[in-house]
Amino acid sequence: xxxxxxxxxxxxxxxxxxxxxxxxxxxxxxxxxxxxxxxxxxxxxxxxxxxxxxxxxxxxxxxxxxxxxxxxxxxxxxxxxxxxxxxxxxxxxxxxxxxxxxxxxxxxxxxxxxxxxxxxxxxxxxxx
Length: 128
Prior knowledge:
This protein is an all-alpha fold.
């Protein structure tokens, strides 16, 4: 059996690559989707978006660039609120992302999934 670090890295790489399929139709990157979703969930200041996506900020830097790209598309107002077009895009893309997540977790009992997430959260707490 391979250790947890192997599976974490392997799954991360598979998710990054596989997310290209549902998002590619919208010419959207995974990070742009995550930023759009964070805004839809109430993160409007750059600092709030960066906090919501902290692990990615640590690796890539501030998500401000992605906010700018979404604004350029007409999906965000200057103060990082969803426009009507942005809300429609979010709803449409969210449905595709949900279908993708269902495919990724196919055959995994909901309780097993929750246990895995809780375990990973605990490991992160132990290491910070």
